Amino acid sequence: MTFHHFNRRVHLYLALVLLPWFLMYGISSLFFNHNRLLEGFYQDGVPLWKTRFDRPYEIEVPPGADLKPIGARIVRENRLEGTYGSYRPKPNQVHVYVYSFLHSVRVTYFTDQKRLVAEDRRFRWDQFFTGMHARGGFGHPHLLDDVWAVVVDLVCLGFLAWIASGILMWWKLPQTRAWGWLALSGGMAVFAGFLAGL
Length: 198
What we know:
Layout: H1 3-33, H2 35-39, E1 49-56, H3 67-77, E2 83-90, E3 93-99, E4 104-110, E5 115-121, H4 125-134, H5 143-171, H6 177-197
Antiparallel strand pairs: 1-5, 2-3, 3-4, 4-5
């Protein structure tokens, strides 16, 4: 097998392996780009959030405290499942967002009232796809989150290899070289124009 044939096989099978990721990033980008238009599909009177519980709760939250262990304790003590993030939108509130691709829970701890409220978010396809698109990074509490981050890195490398193999295939076909230059220069010019203008 020549290198040219090997490169064609690489390009072909990379496209098949990466197909779910191309679809996910393509569909989710449409949701990101047209979120106001798509929001109209969910104006059906069903609230986005539904209260799971509202009960007394007490945990010490000193000013300037690291919220990660506080969020971990809230998640553990209230038997919540999923990856979570903690932040403080107001001085008297701590939010813990517990999420997965299919389900999310918003937990609000009111420090002045010693009260904890958990709300379940209804499933929506736009949030399902954009959640996959935006999810990444290491250091989450679950191993599967880090595995996802590793696979995303491999997918990105796969995209680069797919591009490189495509360029090599194009260069090996002199009869398509002029159209290839036109496509390449046109794409680069449009991209550069947006970089300069936005």
